[in-house]
Model the fold of this input.
Amino acid sequence: MAIDTTSYDPRNLHLPDGEILSSGHLACPGCGAALGMRLALKALGPNTMVVIPACCWAVINGPYPFQALSVPVLQVAFETAAISASGIRAALDAQGQKDINVVAWAGDGGTFDIGFQSLSGAVERNDDIIYFCYDNEAYMNTGIQRSSATPYGAWTTTTPVETPKAEPKKNMVEIMVEHRIPYTATASIAFPEDFVRKVEKAKGIPGAKFIHLWISCPAGHKSEERNSVKIARLAVETGVFPLYEVEYGTRYTINHEPAFTDVNAYLELQGRFRHLTEEHVEAMRRNLRWEWERLRAKVEMGRKLSLPPTGVRGAVDEGERTSR
Amino acid sequence: MVELNPKYLEDVPLTSYSDNAITAIKTGTWKYVQPVYEDKLPACSHVCPAGNDISKAMDLIARGDVAAAARLWRAGNPLASTLGRVCPHPCESECNRRQFGGAIAIHMLERFLGDSSLDESFLPEKARPTGKKVAVVGAGPAGISAAYSLALAGHEVEVFDDKAKPGGYLRTGIPDYRLPKEILDRELALVGSLGVRFTCSTHVGKDITLDDLKQRFDAVIVAVGFHRSRPLAVPGEDHPNVYNGVMLLERILAGERPELPSPVAVVGGGNTAIDVARSLLRLGVEPIIVYRRSRLEMPAIPGEVDEAEKEGVPFHFLTAPSQVVVEDGRITALECLKMRLGEPDESGRRRPLPVEGSEFRLPVAGVVTAIGESADLELLPESARDGWRVAADERFATPVDGVFAAGDAAFGDGTVTAAVGGGRRVAAVVDRRLGGRELPAAAPSLQKLWQRPVEAAHPVYVEQLNVAYFTESPRPQIEEMDAQARRSSFDEVVQGFTDEQAVHEARRCLVCGTCNECCNCLFFCPDVAIHKRNGVVGFEIDTEHCKGCGICVEECPRSALTLVEVES
Ligand SMILES: Cc1ncc(C[n+]2csc(CCOP(=O)(O)OP(=O)(O)O)c2C)c(N)n1
Ligand code: SF4
Ligand code: SF4
Ligand SMILES: [Mg+2]
Done:
């Protein structure tokens, strides 16, 4: 029988088999941050060191003498994720150990707010690290306080339903892009292959890399644990969280064209949006259209622009690229 | 270089060290719900009257294991090749692939599996002989199916039929262009190879009595089907050019080429009417179908009506005959009345009502009656009859002890497929009885007879699927003989799938309700608590660490996992 059975694979996902995250960690059931770390480490592999500042992940990793990752982890002060990673990188470089991935893994509070200056410094120096911001859109570990990553209209303990957050989310990706670093990307736990590809790509690029990972948080978003991936998928498919990457602050690529499902599908699965009125939602829709207009214009602009000249910060000679 | 005070070195380690044996923390104790792998009945199998395990078979074909799929299909269905050809495939109307490029061509794959397994090596293993004997009256689909399952269960089975060869309606009522008789013969040979004896040309009720059978056998199954054509009850019906549709079809199928006048009115809207019309066309006679309701109410298989139309058979709907017009000894016309549709009747279809003064004459030279059939129940005592049917309860048992019934004569479902399913179920009941056990309150459902356990209470429909993982893929074109060429040939109209086509089509199946190792659960678990099982299809859950979030259940595309409460 001339049937090609070897090519048959019912899999929806093709991901690396290796596991660096282990069971027994202390994340809440349905935690997107745990899933995000699991996927990131599949791509990073064992030759990795991870810096974790104060955030949920500092707890998830487990109490001494346990830890959930089978790679070295350094837990540092809240505002110091990026600079700590830069320091490790410098030390490893001094030892000639260039083939180790140095990773900072911080929450949105630790990235958008308190760790912001340290991050800006590290990427301004184009330090050779991969900085992950796992974004659950609030200070979750200390009880769901608003951060500058909290979206417009959301409830948090510091933005109660009577006065929900009035400001839109800070656009951290664009701030990183404007540092003209070699690689900036957004990613989602609902699109693991895209995420893993981006991490693998970041590994091969010297200099500063920033990956903004949107994750669900059942406790903080007031959502059902089982819906964590579904909500993350809807964040992308409604257009709320575009999946894109930017090379050298210039070249934009949209990685997934959303279905542009109505934003209500995303909002209604999360209790933190339950108080919203139709006017709020309409305002969100207007803002979404406006954000997408900007993003598409940047894609267009990037096509016309050349990459920064060799030798200037942010640009790297092809030959310098290493693969870990 | 800064010198460290050795005092500090003694007290405190320079770096705190953690190992990763965090698996010692049993996070599984946190949960109050827990995912379990649980195969469920797909929408297609839910409505398959023969009880085929479609999803599992599709997955096996997709993996290239056609032999395993065929063995699975034949586990309780001896007529796969036949059903793939003649079943109206209700499964496809329910198929969840409908919205994503069109239903899976399940009947074509059933035909493919059947045709790929026409030798004994694909039959299930027979149970050890029980020493019990069963008589089956009627070698049609219900009888064949019952005989097959009972023989597999180790019983000695003898099938009686009044015709010269077994097959019943499959042989006498379904034309070769739909079901080549070689196919039927080969499937009957498979049943024969299990030791089933066919005693033909023996009319139970005339040549031998039911009491004789009851004496000689431990159980009797009556599966005599519908054979008698009902009369039109209009003047002129006794003319020699008015033919009984069932008998005419039987003659044509036996190879006779009767001389018929032309054109001929074929009265009726069922499969017999369509089959007669299409057969007459092939004999060079012009048929005209006359039916008293509209196309929507036709009991015939819609696909077959379409084919008749393609071949050029004309239809007169909402038309009922009132008289066969005979002039100078010859039929010159069929006088008809126009009808309109009133309220629905007991059958759920709208009742046809005559339009007064609407008589008109359809010029024809002959008439075929095909307005329905009834069973010949003379073999049974009065107590075992219930009007037109055999009195049988939900256990397929008749009031006469040891006598069971299945198929059209008992239930009048009207399809070969339902007859096959009924045969399977009556066999299960009789098997129980012969094993000395109490009869159940009702015959087991078809899924209860499957080789694998499936949860059947909540069939998997599109609402239960996670459609984010499915993309459009078009249903393939099914190859047919050119409609013009068909008018002069009894060759099979539909061409079967090649191996490649079959595998391609099976890979479109969403495998609703059954794990096919798509790996979503494996990769989406935030707790790394799902693991591949070695050497077998499927995964297992590390319940010591699973926190019961249910992401796997939600992200399973096909509803093969269920969240259950943890027993405390
Ligand atoms: C300087 C300092 N301020 C405040 C805290 C208390 N703290 C620990 S974690 C945390 C919230 C972290 O939020 P985010 O970075 O978004 O991570 P998440 O907990 O949401 O994962 C806060 C406020 C601290 N550890 N250090
Ligand atoms: S017997 Fe009919 S309903 Fe059942 S699988 Fe075959 S075609 Fe479908
Ligand atoms: S996709 Fe497959 S399993 Fe699902 S209903 Fe259709 S044939 Fe059945
Ligand atoms: Mg946060």
Remarks:
- Residues 11-320 of chain A form a domain with the Rossmann fold fold (CATH 3.40.50.970).
- The beta strands of chain A are 48-52, 73-75, 101-107, 130-135, 183-188, 209-214, 244-247, 251-254.
- The first strand of chain A starts at residue 48 and ends at 52.
- Chain A has eleven helices and eight strands.
